[in-house]
Amino acid sequence: MEISAKVQLSPDTYRFTFKFNDPEWLMGLPLANHMIFFMPAQGEGQDPVARKYTPVSPMTQKGTIDYVIKCYPNCEEFPNGGKMGHYLKTKEVGDKIKMEGPVGRATYKGNGLFKIKTKSDKNVTKIGLLAGGSGITPLFSVMDALYRGKDSTVTQCTMIYSNKTEADILIREQLDAINADASAPHLKVTHTLTRAAEDVAAENVTRGRVNIEMLRSSGFPEPAEDLGIMICGPKGFNEACKALLLANGYTESMLV
After folding, report:
1. What DSSP string runs through 202-228?
2. Shared domain check, 168 and 47
3. 64 plus 165 within the same structural domain
4. Which among 13, 14, 17, 53 is annotated as catalytic?
5. Does the active-site annotation cover 191?
6. What is the pLDDT of residue 160?
Protein backbone atom coordinates (compact mmCIF):
# COMPACT_ATOMS: atom_id res chain seq x y z
CA MET A 1 0.00 0.00 0.00
CA GLU A 2 1.10 3.57 -0.67
CA ILE A 3 1.87 6.04 2.11
CA SER A 4 -0.29 9.14 1.66
CA ALA A 5 0.71 10.95 4.87
CA LYS A 6 3.38 10.64 7.57
CA VAL A 7 3.19 12.69 10.78
CA GLN A 8 5.72 12.61 13.61
CA LEU A 9 3.86 12.42 16.94
CA SER A 10 6.87 12.19 19.24
CA PRO A 11 10.65 11.72 18.86
CA ASP A 12 10.13 8.01 18.10
CA THR A 13 6.47 7.68 17.06
CA TYR A 14 4.80 8.31 13.71
CA ARG A 15 1.30 8.18 12.31
CA PHE A 16 1.34 6.58 8.85
CA THR A 17 -1.66 6.95 6.57
CA PHE A 18 -1.98 4.52 3.66
CA LYS A 19 -4.42 5.03 0.81
CA PHE A 20 -6.59 2.51 -0.97
CA ASN A 21 -6.94 2.34 -4.73
CA ASP A 22 -10.54 3.53 -4.44
CA PRO A 23 -11.41 6.49 -2.15
CA GLU A 24 -14.73 4.79 -1.31
CA TRP A 25 -13.14 1.61 0.04
CA LEU A 26 -13.36 0.75 3.74
CA MET A 27 -10.53 -1.12 5.43
CA GLY A 28 -12.71 -4.14 6.30
CA LEU A 29 -10.23 -5.34 8.93
CA PRO A 30 -11.93 -7.32 11.73
CA LEU A 31 -11.71 -5.64 15.15
CA ALA A 32 -8.53 -6.57 17.08
CA ASN A 33 -6.96 -8.11 13.97
CA HIS A 34 -3.68 -7.07 12.39
CA MET A 35 -1.93 -6.64 9.08
CA ILE A 36 1.57 -8.01 8.51
CA PHE A 37 4.08 -5.45 7.22
CA PHE A 38 7.08 -6.76 5.29
CA MET A 39 10.58 -5.29 5.09
CA PRO A 40 12.78 -6.81 2.36
CA ALA A 41 16.25 -8.07 3.23
CA GLN A 42 18.50 -5.04 3.64
CA GLY A 43 21.74 -6.65 2.53
CA GLU A 44 23.63 -9.86 1.85
CA GLY A 45 23.10 -12.38 4.60
CA GLN A 46 20.15 -10.40 5.99
CA ASP A 47 16.68 -11.90 6.37
CA PRO A 48 13.38 -10.22 5.47
CA VAL A 49 11.47 -8.88 8.49
CA ALA A 50 7.72 -9.15 9.17
CA ARG A 51 5.80 -7.37 11.92
CA LYS A 52 2.11 -7.17 12.85
CA TYR A 53 0.36 -3.81 13.22
CA THR A 54 -3.24 -2.89 14.03
CA PRO A 55 -4.76 0.32 12.64
CA VAL A 56 -6.07 3.09 14.88
CA SER A 57 -8.53 4.50 12.33
CA PRO A 58 -12.24 3.64 12.70
CA MET A 59 -13.80 0.95 10.52
CA THR A 60 -16.00 3.59 8.90
CA GLN A 61 -13.08 5.62 7.53
CA LYS A 62 -13.11 5.64 3.74
CA GLY A 63 -10.18 5.66 1.35
CA THR A 64 -7.36 5.48 3.89
CA ILE A 65 -6.14 3.56 6.92
CA ASP A 66 -4.01 4.94 9.79
CA TYR A 67 -1.33 3.25 11.88
CA VAL A 68 0.53 4.71 14.87
CA ILE A 69 3.93 3.03 14.97
CA LYS A 70 6.71 3.37 17.52
CA CYS A 71 10.12 3.34 15.85
CA TYR A 72 12.25 2.11 18.74
CA PRO A 73 15.67 3.81 19.02
CA ASN A 74 18.83 1.98 20.04
CA CYS A 75 18.61 1.23 23.76
CA GLU A 76 19.42 -1.45 26.34
CA GLU A 77 16.36 -3.52 25.44
CA PHE A 78 16.79 -3.00 21.67
CA PRO A 79 20.56 -2.64 21.01
CA ASN A 80 19.92 -2.36 17.27
CA GLY A 81 16.63 -0.54 17.63
CA GLY A 82 13.43 -1.87 16.12
CA LYS A 83 14.27 -3.17 12.64
CA MET A 84 10.85 -2.59 11.10
CA GLY A 85 10.43 0.74 12.86
CA HIS A 86 13.77 2.00 11.55
CA TYR A 87 12.78 0.87 8.07
CA LEU A 88 9.41 2.61 8.21
CA LYS A 89 11.02 5.76 9.61
CA THR A 90 12.97 6.11 6.34
CA LYS A 91 9.83 5.89 4.22
CA GLU A 92 8.08 8.98 2.89
CA VAL A 93 4.82 9.91 1.20
CA GLY A 94 4.53 8.01 -2.10
CA ASP A 95 6.54 5.00 -0.93
CA LYS A 96 4.81 1.62 -0.78
CA ILE A 97 4.87 -1.09 1.90
CA LYS A 98 4.04 -4.71 1.21
CA MET A 99 1.28 -5.99 3.53
CA GLU A 100 -0.66 -9.19 4.10
CA GLY A 101 -3.67 -10.00 6.23
CA PRO A 102 -5.83 -9.89 8.15
CA VAL A 103 -4.45 -12.10 10.93
CA GLY A 104 -5.43 -12.47 14.57
CA ARG A 105 -6.44 -15.01 17.19
CA ALA A 106 -9.53 -13.16 18.42
CA THR A 107 -12.06 -10.87 16.75
CA TYR A 108 -14.70 -8.75 18.38
CA LYS A 109 -17.86 -9.02 16.26
CA GLY A 110 -20.01 -6.58 18.24
CA ASN A 111 -22.97 -7.12 20.57
CA GLY A 112 -20.71 -8.82 23.12
CA LEU A 113 -19.51 -11.61 20.80
CA PHE A 114 -15.87 -12.67 20.49
CA LYS A 115 -14.81 -15.13 17.77
CA ILE A 116 -11.73 -17.00 18.99
CA LYS A 117 -9.70 -19.32 16.76
CA THR A 118 -8.58 -21.82 19.38
CA LYS A 119 -11.67 -21.68 21.60
CA SER A 120 -15.43 -21.60 21.35
CA ASP A 121 -17.12 -18.27 20.64
CA LYS A 122 -17.63 -16.22 23.78
CA ASN A 123 -20.51 -13.90 24.66
CA VAL A 124 -19.67 -11.20 27.20
CA THR A 125 -21.24 -8.23 28.94
CA LYS A 126 -17.99 -7.03 30.52
CA ILE A 127 -14.53 -6.57 28.97
CA GLY A 128 -11.14 -6.09 30.62
CA LEU A 129 -8.22 -4.79 28.54
CA LEU A 130 -4.56 -4.97 29.66
CA ALA A 131 -2.18 -3.21 27.26
CA GLY A 132 1.57 -2.75 27.37
CA GLY A 133 3.46 -0.28 25.16
CA SER A 134 2.69 -0.61 21.46
CA GLY A 135 0.30 -3.48 22.26
CA ILE A 136 -2.36 -0.82 22.76
CA THR A 137 -3.59 -0.73 19.15
CA PRO A 138 -5.67 -3.95 18.90
CA LEU A 139 -7.23 -3.26 22.31
CA PHE A 140 -7.94 0.35 21.38
CA SER A 141 -9.78 -0.87 18.27
CA VAL A 142 -12.21 -2.76 20.52
CA MET A 143 -12.79 0.11 22.95
CA ASP A 144 -13.12 2.63 20.12
CA ALA A 145 -15.71 0.42 18.41
CA LEU A 146 -17.69 0.12 21.66
CA TYR A 147 -17.57 3.90 22.01
CA ARG A 148 -18.45 4.84 18.44
CA GLY A 149 -21.04 2.10 18.02
CA LYS A 150 -22.68 2.71 21.43
CA ASP A 151 -22.61 -1.06 21.96
CA SER A 152 -25.18 -1.49 24.75
CA THR A 153 -24.58 -5.22 25.18
CA VAL A 154 -21.28 -4.50 26.91
CA THR A 155 -22.07 -2.75 30.19
CA GLN A 156 -18.45 -2.34 31.35
CA CYS A 157 -15.09 -2.05 29.58
CA THR A 158 -12.04 -1.13 31.64
CA MET A 159 -8.52 -0.70 30.26
CA ILE A 160 -5.20 -0.52 32.08
CA TYR A 161 -2.44 0.74 29.80
CA SER A 162 1.16 0.32 31.00
CA ASN A 163 4.10 2.39 29.75
CA LYS A 164 7.51 3.44 31.04
CA THR A 165 6.79 7.19 31.04
CA GLU A 166 4.00 9.55 29.99
CA ALA A 167 5.95 10.37 26.81
CA ASP A 168 5.58 6.71 25.77
CA ILE A 169 1.77 6.70 25.87
CA LEU A 170 0.41 6.18 22.35
CA ILE A 171 -2.93 7.59 21.10
CA ARG A 172 -3.42 9.20 24.51
CA GLU A 173 -5.70 11.94 23.21
CA GLN A 174 -8.22 9.43 21.90
CA LEU A 175 -8.04 7.24 24.99
CA ASP A 176 -8.46 10.11 27.44
CA ALA A 177 -11.35 11.56 25.42
CA ILE A 178 -13.24 8.27 25.77
CA ASN A 179 -12.37 8.05 29.47
CA ALA A 180 -13.61 11.60 30.12
CA ASP A 181 -16.88 11.34 28.16
CA ALA A 182 -19.73 11.49 30.68
CA SER A 183 -22.05 9.85 28.15
CA ALA A 184 -19.95 6.66 28.31
CA PRO A 185 -19.33 6.05 32.04
CA HIS A 186 -18.92 2.32 31.41
CA LEU A 187 -15.72 2.88 29.38
CA LYS A 188 -12.69 3.65 31.54
CA VAL A 189 -8.94 3.97 30.93
CA THR A 190 -6.19 3.98 33.56
CA HIS A 191 -2.58 4.67 32.59
CA THR A 192 0.20 3.21 34.72
CA LEU A 193 3.86 4.27 34.46
CA THR A 194 6.71 1.98 35.46
CA ARG A 195 9.72 4.31 35.17
CA ALA A 196 8.31 7.80 35.57
CA ALA A 197 10.54 10.12 37.55
CA GLU A 198 8.05 12.98 37.50
CA ASP A 199 4.91 13.28 39.58
CA VAL A 200 1.71 12.35 37.78
CA ALA A 201 -1.10 14.84 37.89
CA ALA A 202 -3.93 13.34 35.82
CA GLU A 203 -6.62 11.50 37.75
CA ASN A 204 -6.41 8.43 35.52
CA VAL A 205 -2.61 8.02 35.81
CA THR A 206 -0.90 5.87 38.44
CA ARG A 207 2.52 4.28 38.91
CA GLY A 208 3.89 0.77 39.04
CA ARG A 209 3.46 -2.53 37.29
CA VAL A 210 0.02 -4.04 36.96
CA ASN A 211 -1.01 -5.72 40.23
CA ILE A 212 -4.20 -6.88 41.90
CA GLU A 213 -4.61 -3.64 43.88
CA MET A 214 -4.41 -1.69 40.62
CA LEU A 215 -7.06 -3.91 39.03
CA ARG A 216 -9.40 -3.28 41.94
CA SER A 217 -8.81 0.47 42.21
CA SER A 218 -9.29 0.98 38.46
CA GLY A 219 -12.64 -0.83 38.48
CA PHE A 220 -11.38 -3.77 36.41
CA PRO A 221 -14.22 -6.31 36.09
CA GLU A 222 -14.42 -9.00 38.74
CA PRO A 223 -14.14 -12.66 37.65
CA ALA A 224 -17.34 -13.81 35.91
CA GLU A 225 -18.36 -16.16 33.13
CA ASP A 226 -19.63 -13.24 31.04
CA LEU A 227 -16.23 -11.49 31.22
CA GLY A 228 -13.78 -11.33 28.33
CA ILE A 229 -10.17 -10.25 28.96
CA MET A 230 -7.70 -9.25 26.27
CA ILE A 231 -3.95 -8.85 26.97
CA CYS A 232 -1.51 -7.39 24.45
CA GLY A 233 2.04 -6.19 24.95
CA PRO A 234 5.61 -7.50 25.15
CA LYS A 235 5.98 -11.18 26.00
CA GLY A 236 7.02 -10.52 29.60
CA PHE A 237 4.06 -8.22 30.16
CA ASN A 238 1.61 -10.74 28.72
CA GLU A 239 2.97 -13.58 30.84
CA ALA A 240 2.99 -11.51 34.04
CA CYS A 241 -0.59 -10.30 33.50
CA LYS A 242 -1.86 -13.79 32.79
CA ALA A 243 -0.16 -15.19 35.90
CA LEU A 244 -1.61 -12.34 38.00
CA LEU A 245 -5.13 -13.00 36.74
CA LEU A 246 -4.99 -16.77 37.21
CA ALA A 247 -3.68 -16.31 40.76
CA ASN A 248 -6.62 -14.07 41.69
CA GLY A 249 -9.74 -15.95 40.66
CA TYR A 250 -9.77 -15.35 36.91
CA THR A 251 -9.77 -18.39 34.63
CA GLU A 252 -8.50 -19.40 31.20
CA SER A 253 -12.08 -19.32 29.91
CA MET A 254 -12.21 -15.58 30.59
CA LEU A 255 -9.14 -14.88 28.44
CA VAL A 256 -9.89 -14.20 24.79
Report:
1. STTEEESS--HHHHHHHTPPPS-TTEE
2. no
3. no
4. 53
5. no
6. 98
